[in-house]
């Protein structure tokens, strides 16, 4: 049987998820690189490696890290882990990594990355990854495991057979590294099923500056969560997207299961970074407007997070 498992892998963006995936793949025998736009942090990672905290255990991994994609050169697999707002400026810098045989897997939350990826005309196949793995960035290159979760991979459009083999190879690599991975035919449905959860949890935790579980004890927050998810469901249904049953109950269940987590959006606000609000509640609002659907709860959440960002982002 042909070996389709990727040998050279570049992880772009050493945030919480990027570092978690890098430490996971360090357990395989691949040639693993981290590409970071920040050359000082890249030098630090190259020198000191990555640290993974999991269930009270601390593990260190050496890693090859650089801010110069030319230094890495063509790879078999790119894991694009930068946040949605950074996608537009990141994609052109990846060209030295990409050939027609490369598979690029995009791991962003929300739906804001979809038009950017579709319009990018990259020289390689592009697939999406939707994950419920939990990760918290403690410091540069230092990640705390936040909980196991399934990961779905899939192409948005019809992909050529070689690209499909490359995706199976990537899935196998993750499985060997210990992740639960499925290749999905309808990845857009997975993207939206995860979006609904992020719509209900992320902005509210940022606004209330609380862990996911605290939302369950706040009646007002719960009402807004429910309203925002219901609006997003109406948008998804109008777009013909296959939504899994009981999305509001699922959002509450995820809140319970991740009660101790600091959501990715609250991590961004606390670190004074641009959040993914435009790709989550903002994107639902935009789609709702386009379809003539009213979405006041998503408008309220989107405005409140933008107001928080205004307090710390320049300009
Ligand atoms: O973005 C996040 O933080 C996660 O997707 C989730 C599920 C809300 C858990 O914290």
Q: What's the CATH first level of the largest domain?
A: Alpha Beta
> Which stretches of 5+ consecutive residues score pLDDT under 50?
none
Percent helix range: 40-55%
What is the typical, i.e. mean, pLDDT? 95
Number of domains: 2
CATH hierarchy: architecture of the largest domain = 3-Layer(aba) Sandwich
CATH level 4 superfamily of the largest domain: NAD(P)-binding Rossmann-like Domain
Lateral arrangement of strands in the main beta sheet = 5-2-1-6-7-8-11-12
Looking at how many chains there are and whether they match, the oligomeric state comes to: single chain
The geometry reads as globular
Give the number of DSSP strands. 12
How many H/I helices?
Answer: 12
Bound ligands, each once: pantoate
Structural account:
A hairpin with a 2-residue loop joins β3 and β4. α8 (219-238) packs across α11 and α8 (219-238) packs across α12 (296-310). The strands form two sheets. The protein has an eight-stranded mixed sheet with strand order 5-2-1-6-7-8-11-12. Strands 4-3-10-9 form a four-stranded mixed sheet, with helices on one face. The protein is globular and about 50 Å long. It is built from twelve helices and twelve strands. It folds into two domains: 8-185, NAD(P)-binding Rossmann-like Domain (Rossmann fold), CATH 3.40.50.720; 188-310, N-(1-d-carboxylethyl)-l-norvaline Dehydrogenase, domain 2. It has helices at 16-25, 39-48, 69-72, 87-90, 113-119, 161-176, 187-208, 219-238, 247-257, 264-270, 281-291, 296-310, and strands at 8-12, 31-35, 50-54, 57-61, 64-66, 77-80, 103-106, 125-131, 134-139, 142-147, 151-154, 181-183. With 315 residues, it is α/β, with parallel strands linked by helices. The structure holds pantoate. Pantoate (PAF) binds next to α7. The site of pantoate (PAF) has 12 residues, from α7.
